[in-house]
Amino acid sequence: MVLGGGEGEGTGCGLSGRDAAMDAALGALYGDTGGSGGTGGKARRGGERSAGLGGSAPSVARWLGDIRSYFPASVVQVMQRDAIDRLGLSAMLLEPEMLEAVEPDVHLVGTLLSLSKAMPETTRTTARAVVRKVVEQLEQKLAGRTRSTLTGALDRSARTSRPRHRDIDWDRTIRANLGNYLPEHRTVVPERLIGHGRASRSVRKEVVLCIDQSGSMAASVVYASVFGAVLASMRSLATRLVVFDTSVVDLTDRLDDPVDVLFGTRLGGGTDINRALAYCQSRITRPADTVVVLISDLYEGGIRNEMLGRVAAMKAAGVQFVALLALSDEGAPSYDREHAAALAALGAPAFACTPDLFPEVMAAALEKREIVGSHEIGVPV
Fold first, then answer.
1. 248-250/237-244 β-pairing
2. How far apart are CA 307 and CA 119, in angstroms?
3. The whole model's pTM is what?
4. What DSSP line would sit under 173-198, residue for residue?
5. Cβ atoms < 10 Å from Cβ of 198
6. 151 pLDDT more than 80
């Protein structure tokens, strides 16, 4: 739908009431910003419309309130993101009054994290409240399905071919022995037994999430932190979370609160994947039972050959290694195609993944199933 008004638009129709207010809100962001400010459009000489948000925090706060009343949350989030990009409103988000007017979403969290070092104490409490609201929404959406999917994968990976009678999985056993059906006796001879491994509270698998915190990975950092907290809550998984730029920070001790994890990151800066993988490699104690998930666009600023050598060494030791070029709802990410192809050649799949599909990626890795080429899991290179 196109909203318009004024002679210069050639429709011959004017707008009034709510339509005019919606048009003003849109014009303030997407119209000619050569005007002097305000939250709505103004008539210029010659019939042209000018608009803009100006540099006034109160006018921006009013505009944020206007768009929340006129448009659904999904549209508001897009407009907020465009306002930050087009009009340079990031600095204004350091004011508590401004944060209270915005619609929280993953992209806003990324922006706040990038500003966290410059954030005054008066704003930090409000910013944490905004981040916590988004994190709680994501946990509510993703946690249940993640736990159930990975619990099933862990149970399946623990199946044994020599089960005790009470541990026999009769459904899978019958299906595996259908070739041994004896029609005269109307029965199946179970030559091969399939059973569940006995339930255990001990750690079965170890997961290392290694997250690139360069500026382009903001949404991926948010989602990875939430998933890290969910994985850490599962007794049968030992989860480690590492973030890196040109330095490496282990945030495993903060995994019980993903908000603390997020405020422990430092979005922006360079990238040294090799150094991060060296740290992760040094913490692996059970290679055959370990999954390493590298979340990075693979633009390496460190030593390329050493990075690839570390991946090859981990693979040779039995580690399941997966590279996610992005963990977000965005489209195809920008990434280093040469490095992605080199990882694929080592048998380490590299692909983009949406948060909804991340549990399936982890389940496949835990069960040591093939991931490359599975359109149901991600978008392979």
1. antiparallel
2. 35
3. 0.71
4. HHHHTGGGEETTTTEE---S--BPPP
5. 11
6. yes
